[in-house]
Amino acid sequence: MQIVKVVGVGLIGALVAGMLRQEKSELYIVAVIAGSALILVIVLSSLTEVIAQFGILVGKSGVDESLFAGVLKIIGVGYITEYAAALCTDFGITSIANKMQLAGKVAIFFMTMPILTNLVNVISAML
Predict the structure, then answer these.
(1) Which domain holds residue 27?
(2) Residue 67 and residue 126: Cα distance in Å, rounded?
(3) Which of 62, 90, 108 is the last residue of a domain?
């Protein structure tokens, strides 16, 4: 029930940040970052189980492990970019958030090239 923890931390963090926004605006940013970091820790702790299961599937599939590692990296870049951009948006800095999202998309595009190359090689070998 990790989602219950995440929702609880999120609601408490939002409540604290909301109260600090008007009273102590300099602590508002600290409260938002602390709440966000705690949520990230909870989510990452549950991801270790999924990554372990992913590794078992890779071993059974017989496909090159570097391809699956690339997929995990792509997913990670997407999540990290979205997370950082959302924080910037929370602070009202949408211009930087948009640039971060663009940079993440470009990074993902470059990271897909080895996977696409391998896919083309497999298809051409079958023909």
Answers:
(1) 1-62
(2) 19
(3) 62
